[in-house]
Design brief:
mainly alpha; Growth Hormone, Chain: A; 3-stranded mixed β-sheet; two-stranded antiparallel ribbon
Length: 579
C-alpha cells in the first residue's frame, strides 16, 4: 500500500514539475510567455508543428540533443551516451531534486523512519522466533514422530540451513525488486510454508516445509542492514542499529518462552508453535502492507524516470537502475563470487565471521542443551526450563544501557572528522555527516565491553551447574552471555559496514551464510555433545573456544588501521570526508 502511494506521489510530483517548467523555443531559448496548451516545438524532421493534444509531452524538445526541458528540471543530469551508433545523443539521468528532497527515504520524518525501522525489526523478530520455537517442544516432536532427539533437532537445524541458503539470494533481489517487495513477497511464502509445517503428516514433510520456510524467512535478517542504511546517517545508526539488534534478537531467545507450556497439557498441541508464528506473521504482514514504505532510493528514482518518460514521451529520461542491464542470475552469481573472493583476502572478515559463527554455535546448541543444564541437573520441568531463557534476554536488553554513552563518544569522533573537512556544523544539518568518514574502529566499543563476558559466562555456567549449587547461578550466567553476545553482534555488523563500504554487502553475506550453516549443523550435533561430554565439559570446551576469540576486537581496535591499509577492499583513513 505504501509503495503504491509512493509511486502515485512520484507521478504527481513529476506532473507538477512539468507543468511549472518554462517553455522553450526551437533554439533552446526559454519562452516563459508561451501558452501551455499550444506549444510550438521542432519535430524530428526539422519543421514546426503546433501540438495541442498533450501539453506535458509537448515540453520534450526532441529537436536538440540537449533538451532545454531536461535542463530546466531539478535533479536531472544530462550525460552523453558512449554509443557508437549514436555518438551525439544524450540521456537524462533522473535524480533527487536536492539533498533535502522529501521523497527521498533518507529525508522522511523521524517518526516515519522509526516506524519503518521497527516494522523491519518486527519481521526479524518473528522469523527469528520461528527458528527456535520448535526446540521448546522437542520432546513432543520426538514422541509424535517416533524418532530420537537427534533426529527431532533437525526441525531447528534445517530451518537454519534454509536461512543460510536464502541469504545467498535475498540481498541481490532487494537491490532489483526493492526492499518492500522482497519483504512482503518472502513473508507471504514464509507463512505458507509455516502453515505447511503445522499440517505436515510426517517428519519428512515437516523438515521440507521448515527448510523452505527458512529460505523465505531470511530477508528481514539479511536486508535489514540495507533498510537501516537507507534511512539513517552513520551517526544515527549508532542508536538505530542497536535498537534493531536488541529487539530482533528477542525472536530466537524468547521463542522457547512462547512455547513454554505448549504440548504439555490437553489445551494446545505442539503444532500450535507453528500456528502462533503464523498468526503473528499475519498480523505483522498487515502492518507492513499498510505502513512500510519503500526505502530503496534507486528503485524510487526508477519509478520517477518511468513517470517522466510516460508524461513527456521522451525515452531519454532514465534512472541509474534503468541503465543497469545486469540480469538477476548474473547479479546473484557475481554476489556469490564476491562473497568468497573478498573473504579469502580479508583477515578482518575471516576473524569476525569466525567469531560470529562461534557465538551462534553456542547459542543454538543451548536450545538442545538447556534441557541438560536445567532439567537434568536441577529437575526443572520442561515449561520452567523454557522460561529460564528470559534471563538471557534480560542480559541482551541491558546492552541498551551502552547505547547513549557510546553514541556520545561516536558523535565526538564524527564531529571532529566533520570539522576537519570544512568546519561543518553536524548539529544543525544531518546531511553534514553523509560523506564524513571516521575510523571504523569506533564501532568496536560494544564488542570490547561484551567480549570478555562470553567465556566468563560459559565457565561460570559450566562450573557451577551442580544440584548442590543454587539454580540462580547458571541463570544469572546466561544473562551475561546474552549481554556479551549482542555486543559482539552489534559491533561486528557496524564495523564491517564502515570498513568495507560498497563491499560490505558481500562481507555481510558471507558472515550470514557461514554462521547459519554452522549453527544449523551444530544444532544437531549439540544433543550428543551434551549427552556424551556432559554439561560441564561441553560448556568448558565452548568457553575455551570463545576465550581464544576475545582478543579479536581489541586487536582490531589497536591495529585495524594498519590491517586496512594492507587490504584491497577496506576503506582507508587518509580521506576523512568531502562535502
Amino acid at each position: 500500500m505504501q509503495s503504491y502511494l509512493q509511486y502515485r506521489q512520484l507521478g504527481h510530483v513529476v506532473h507538477k514539475q512539468l507543468e511549472n517548467a518554462p517553455e522553450h523555443d526551437a533554439t533552446g531559448a526559454v519562452n516563459v510567455d508561451a501558452p501551455v496548451g499550444a506549444t510550438s516545438v521542432l519535430s524530428n524532421q526539422g519543421h514546426r508543428a503546433d501540438q495541442t493534444t498533450n501539453p506535458l509531452s509537448q515540453k520534450a524538445s526532441h529537436g536538440s540533443e540537449k533538451s532545454p526541458l531536461a535542463q530546466s528540471l531539478p535533479g536531472i543530469e544530462i550525460q552523453k551516451q558512449l554509443d557508437a551508433s549514436s555518438p551525439n545523443s544524450h540521456i537524462f539521468v533522473v535524480g533527487w531534486e536536492g539533498e533535502n528532497d522529501p521523497l527521498n527515504p533518507y529525508n522522511f520524518s523521524y517518526a516515519r523512519r522509526m516506524v519503518a525501522t521497527l516494522l523491519v525489526t518486527a519481521l526479524a523478530f518473528i522469523v527469528g522466533a520461528a527458528s527456535a520455537i520448535e526446540s521448546g517442544v522437542l520432546p513432543q516432536i520426538t514422541e509424535a514422530y517416533g524418532v530420537s532427539e537427534v533426529v527431532g533437532s533437525l526441525v531447528t537445524g534445517v530451518y537454519l540451513l534454509g536461512f543460510a541458503t536464502g541469504s545467498l539470494f535475498s540481498g541481490p533481489l532487494s537491490e532489483i525488486l526493492g526492499r518492500n517487495s522482497v519483504y512482503a513477497g518472502s513473508l507471504t511464502l514464509f507463512m505458507i510454508f509455516i502453515m505447511g509445517s503445522a499440517l505436515a503428516p510426517n517428519l519428512g514433510a515437516q523438515l521440507a516445509f521448515r527448510f523452505l520456510a527458512g529460505i523465505f524467512g531470511c530477508p528481514p535478517l539479511t536486508c535489514a542492514g540495507g533498510t537501516i542504511a537507507d534511512l539513517w546517517n552513520p551517526l544515527e545508526k549508532t542508536i538505530t542499529f542497536p535498537i534493531y539488534a536488541i529487539l530482533s534478537f528477542g525472536g530466537p531467545v524468547l521463542a522457547p518462552v512462547i512455547a513454554s507450556f505448549i504440548g504439555q497439557t490437553g489445551v494446545l498441541s505442539w503444532e500450535w508453535t507453528a500456528w502462533i508464528i503464523l498468526i503473528a506473521s499475519g498480523a505483522i504482514f498487515v502492518l507492513v502492507l499498510l505502513f512500510q514504505p519503500e526505502t530503496y532510493a534507486p528503485l524510487l528514482l526508477k519509478w520517477k524516470g518511468k513517470h517522466l518518460r510516460q508524461k513527456t514521451g521522451d525515452p531519454r529520461f532514465r534512472s541509474a537502475m534503468d541503465m543497469d542491464k545486469v540480469s538477476l542470475l548474473h547479479r546473484i552469481a557475481g554476489a556469490l563470487k564476491r562473497q568468497f573472493l573478498i573473504t579469502f583476502h580479508e583477515p578482518i572478515i575471516l576473524l569476525i565471521s569466525l567469531y560470529m559463527t562461534v557465538l551462534y554455535i553456542v547459542l543454538f546448541t543451548f536450545f538442545d542443551g538447556y534441557a541438560d543444564i536445567f532439567t537434568e541437573v536441577h529437575g526443572l520441568s520442561q515449561g520452567l526450563t523454557n522460561i529460564s531463557w528470559v534471563a538471557m534476554y534480560i542480559g541482551i536488553s541491558l546492552a541498551g544501557l551502552l547505547v547513549l554513552p557510546i553514541y556520545r563518544w561516536t558523535k565526538r569522533d564524527f564531529t571532529a572528522a566533520a570539522e576537519e573537512v570544512n568546519g561543518i556544523d553536524t548539529a544543525s544539518d544531518r546531511h553534514a555527516l553523509d560523506n564524513v568518514h571516521t575510523k571504523p574502529e569506533v564501532r568496536l566499543w560494544f564488542a570490547m565491553f561484551g567480549a570478555p563476558l562470553i567465556p566468563i559466562s560459559l565457565f561460570w555456567m559450566g562450573w557451577t551447574d551442580f544440584a548442590s549449587v543454587s539454580i540462580w547461578s547458571p541463570i544469572v550466567a546466561s544473562s551475561f552471555f546474552g549481554f556479551g553476545c549482542i555486543c559482539i553482534f552489534i559491533s561486528s555488523y557496524m564495523y564491517i559496514i564502515d570498513s568495507y563500504g560498497i563491499y560490505a554487502a558481500s562481507a555481510l553475506g558471507f558472515m550470514t551464510v557461514s554462521r547459519y550453516f554452522a549453527a544449523g549443523g551444530m544444532t544437531v550435533v549439540g544433543v550428543p555433545f551434551y549427552k556424551n561430554m556432559g554439561v560441564h565439559w561441553t560448556l568448558t570446551i565452548l568457553g575455551c573456544i570463545s576465550a581464544i576469540m576475545v582478543p579479536v576486537p581489541y586487536v582490531f581496535y589497536r591495529y585495524g588501521p594498519v590491517i586496512r591499509k594492507w587490504s584491497r577492499y577496506a576503506a582507508a583513513d587518509e580521506v576523512k570526508g568531502s562535502v
